[in-house]
Write a structure and sequence with these properties.
This protein is of the alpha/beta class and about 140 residues long. It has seven helices and four strands; from the N terminus they run βαβαααβαβαα. The chain is about 45% helix and about 15% strand.
Length: about 140
């Protein structure tokens, strides 16, 4: 089983991921498409060089790596909505989706502690609604 958490930044997504990671039957993956997002979006982010140096920025490689992580019955994938917005295929097929949604004004206020002038695109809220939630509801 794959649980695909889609969230915006500055939410409880990390705490939720860590709680799932404590389960003996679960393997957790934290923001696997982060480097893909940074490479494709060209956004200026404080940790950009570190992330690009530590992770693959190739969407196919990341997808294949996730599918290879099947050592345990449950794979919990924590994704940021704005990270998967740049993917050629934003959906993980055969996954159970969980959407964490927080007041955008509160997210931007909190996110401004990390990025000096955050914009709505950085939190992925519009993408969650326009592309993911509407498609998921129709399915």
């Amino acid at each position: 089983m794959i649980i695909n958490l889609v969230s915006g930044p500055r939410n409880v997504s990390t705490a939720l991921m860590y709680s799932f990671a404590q389960r003996s039957d679960t393997l957790a993956s934290d923001e696997p498409f982060y480097a893909v997002y940074l490479r494709r979006s060209c956004v200026k982010h404080p940790g950009r060089a570190d992330v690009l140096g530590a992770m693959s920025d190739d969407e196919t490689v990341v997808r294949n790596s996730l599918m290879a992580l099947r050592d345990k019955p449950v794979l919990f994938v924590k994704n940021m909505a704005h990270h998967i917005e740049v993917l050629h295929e934003p959906f993980m097929h055969d996954a159970i989706y969980v959407f964490l949604i927080r007041d955008p004004a509160k997210i931007l206020l909190s996110y401004s502690e990390v990025v000096a002038t955050p914009v709505m695109r950085y939190i992925g809220m519009a993408f969650q609604y326009k592309r993911l939630l509407r498609a998921w509801i129709r399915a």
